[in-house]
Amino acid sequence: MSASRDDTIGIAPGALDDAADRKRRIWAIVGSSSGNLVEWYDFYCYAFFALYFAPAFFPKGDSTSQLLQTAGIFAVGFFMRPIGGWLFGRIADRVGRRTSMVISVLMMCFGSLLIGILPTYEHVGTLAPVLLLLARMLQGLSVGGEYGTSATYMSEVAIKGQRGFFASFQYVTLIGGQLLASLVLVLLQTVMTGPELTAWGWRIPFFIGAGLAIVALYLRRSLAETRDSSDKETAGTFSALAKHWRAFLVVIAYTAGGSLSFYTFTTYMQKYLVNTAGMPKTSASQTMTVVLFVYMIIQPLFGALSDRIGRKANMLLYSGLGTLMVVPLMTALGTNKDPYLAFALITLGLAVVSFYTGISGIVKAELFPTNVRALGVGLSYALANATFGGTAEFVALWFKDNGMESTFFWYVTVLMAIAFVASLIMPNPKVHGYLDGAGTVEEALGKKPRLAHA
Description:
Elements: H1 19-57, H2 63-79, H3 81-94, H4 97-116, H5 121-124, H6 127-157, H7 163-167, H8 169-191, H9 194-199, H10 204-221, H11 238-242, H12 245-265, H13 267-275, H14 281-309, H15 311-334, H16 339-357, H17 360-365, H18 373-389, H19 392-401, H20 405-425, H21 429-432, H22 441-444
Helix pairs in contact: 1-2, 1-4, 1-6, 1-8, 1-10, 1-13, 2-6, 2-18, 2-19, 3-4, 3-6, 3-18, 4-6, 4-10, 6-18, 8-14, 12-15, 12-16, 12-18, 12-20, 13-14, 14-15, 14-16, 15-16, 15-20, 19-20
């Protein structure tokens, strides 16, 4: 395969510097990332509104035990991600990236709508949490396929030399989904009372998400296709992916730390501020909303930085600094009720995490050839994300419930240290990448190369 195939999206070869070509590529980024925003908004609504709907599905026990049960269902949704990563990765590699993204956003729309209309424990008993579990499994399946396909698509349509900058918008919209969910929460807290939110107001954001998915569907239907159709026989198959098992394991290793730290400082942090630091719910929600906004807007800066210093340098800075910061930051946050200091500390933590999240999609896409890129990126990410990211809240709350809360901080630190080792082993994409590199990933990992880079 030639390197040029990754640079074609139905646009004439040699037109990479043409203004019209650049405009089409930017529109493709916008179209794909808009659906990404909606998918993640729907997914995070569950995490942010759990404080209010937990009693509706798990009425027995104290607030920590109720949150522990809802976090368990949150984690189960993550365990559907590997299946989604495989299913939608295979569709994207064999049928097309656009088709995969359209199906995934439709599935997320249905899952969100289902949660919005679910009966509570009071009306149907234990069937209520079972139905909630099924809806979350559907959403987990959808978002598991979304990440790999959108990361692949955005990496392929991004302009060479600026891939880090443009691909960073995947996390801009991923965080934007969190931010939108947080904004909806703050707005509803402003116009509704706590009892109203607990009784029925928590359903509103899920209806909003189902409606937004229709808009994303319209935008995604107009996207150009990037899939290389020259290798249909092996595209999206485990046999083809198995030839890149070293890269697959490297991605799993550094994604484990990346996912765990990301969810620790975002979705779990709201509960940590309320449950441990003793901050009021509204203050915690407002603080996290501002934090997420800052976190969102700095992603392109870290993506652009990787275009200058290299993806490997970004990953080493992220995992190295992260290993050193987790315990002191979490300890300080756990004894602080000042929202301004909390904002500063959480933003500092997420600035370090941004060395990874700003390039999360592109750094994985560069390690796999075209015929298994969506599968390789999606499945490796989903496995690590489900195992370590999806269980972050559950593990943190379990340690707290058993009087060992600080042990969770060290758990995160160990995973960050593993990510540091994986970043050391990771091939330099500038030299051994499948998008821009002159060598191959297999060469860098000590295997005799089978093909030229895709």
